[in-house]
Write a structure and sequence with these properties.
- The structure is a single chain.
- By secondary structure, this protein is α/β, with parallel strands linked by helices.
- The chain has one domain: TIM Barrel (Alpha-Beta Barrel).
- It has 13 helices and 10 strands.
- The longest helix is centred in the N-terminal third of the chain and has 15 residues, at 96-110.
- The protein is globular, with a radius of gyration of 19 Å.
- Pfam families: Aldo_ket_red.
- InterPro entries: K_chnl_volt-dep_bsu_KCNAB-rel, NAD(P)_OxRdtase_dom_sf, NADP_OxRdtase_dom.
- Keywords: NADP, Oxidoreductase.
């Protein structure tokens, strides 16, 4: 495993991070989830990403139990706040009330005194940004989080938050967007802004919810038990990639992966890590062996010629429109 600085901060994180969205507390039983966490640790992964909303807070609790007994200073634990975690009007968003209550709930479930990174899971257009950043400043200054990050924010939103963070003397160091060979919407605006500000990307879904494993075949039904058949949320996210024109082009990547001595999934993860603004790629798993296999993408350097051939194959179907990032800001309070 290789390690990278998170943006321009001094924090080193494993360039493959383990995430438990759609798995812990939901798709995967706790024994299997714990086995996946153990496999991540065995592979040298020290960075673990979760969120209070995952599996209605259960994912944080499962991760906390799985990491219990590990040396805390040797781990980087990330979580997020924004989406509803209860029925009340204030159990959501980025108000001061919700942030201050949510950090305490997350720490309790994770069984830790602090998180290394506390992230705004979406931008809240219904709360003044000043209120949000001042609440984050209090979280940092109280020692409950070391760094602050955002997820799926636009370049303009990130710039305004970064300016306030500097005034408040807190480290805004990360952005967590979706990014893969097939979903490249951050490249035009978000990445240049973050490079300028010293903010690193922690990318989620580098395998495009499993499409870039090559297991989904054009004209065929999705494999039983796959993400595309998951009725707990996974199927909704993967649907956009299950068009035959996309699946046909993904199949063309198999020879390129073999040429590089990689599986198709490893090639997909390694591809995201070729972007110098990417600090880590988040991988999830339902089986321990998946973690070890994906972790082998760490340290891979892809030949420029191979990168060009990937571009030629996928350019007609890759999503690059930066307005897709703008669309991630909820139009109504969740």
């Amino acid at each position: 495993m290789e390690y990278r600085h998170l943006g321009s901060s001094g924090l080193l994180i494993s360039e493959i991070a383990y995430g438990n969205w759609l798995t812990h507390g939901s798709q995967v039983e706790e024994e299997a989830a714990t086995a996946c966490v153990r496999a991540a640790l065995d592979a040298g992964i020290t960075t673990f990403d979760t969120a209070d909303v995952y599996a209605e807070t259960r994912a944080e609790a499962v991760l906390g139990r799985a990491l219990k007994g590990e040396r805390r200073a040797g781990l980087e634990i990330f979580t997020k706040v924004y989406w509803p975690t209860g029925p009340g009007r204030n159990d959501r968003g980025l108000s001061r009330k919700h942030i201050m209550e949510s950090i305490d709930g997350s720490l309790r479930r994770l069984q830790t005194d602090y998180v290394d990174l506390y992230q705004a899971h979406r931008y809240d257009r219904f709360t003044p940004l000043e209120e949000t950043m001042e609440a984050f400043a209090d979280v940092v200054h109280s020692g409950k989080a070391h760094y602050i990050g955002v997820s799926e924010w636009t370049a303009d939103q990130i710039r305004r938050a970064h300016a306030l963070a500097r005034e408040l003397r807190i480290p805004l160091v990360s952005s967590q967007p979706q990014y893969s060979m097939l979903w490249r919407v951050i490249e035009a605006e978000v990445v240049p802004a973050c490079e300028e500000l010293g903010i690193g990307q922690i990318v989620w879904s580098p395998i495009a919810q499993g499409v870039l494993t090559g297991k989904y075949l054009p004209g065929a039904q999705p494999p039983a038990g796959s993400r595309a058949t998951d009725d707990k949320g996974g199927a909704n996210f993967i649907r956009r990639f299950l068009r035959d024109e996309v699946l046909e082009r993904v199949q063309l990547l198999h020879p390129l992966a073999a040429e590089a001595g990689l599986t198709l999934a490893q090639l997909a993860v390694a591809w995201t890590l070729q972007n110098p603004n990417v600090s880590a790629a988040i991988v999830g798993a339902s089986r321990p062996e998946q973690v070890g296999e994906n972790a082998k993408a760490s340290g891979v350097r892809l030949d420029p010629g191979l990168m060009a051939r990937i571009e030629e194959i996928l350019a007609p179907v890759a999503v690059t429109d930066p307005l897709q990032t703008h669309a991630q800001t909820p139009a109504q309070r969740p």
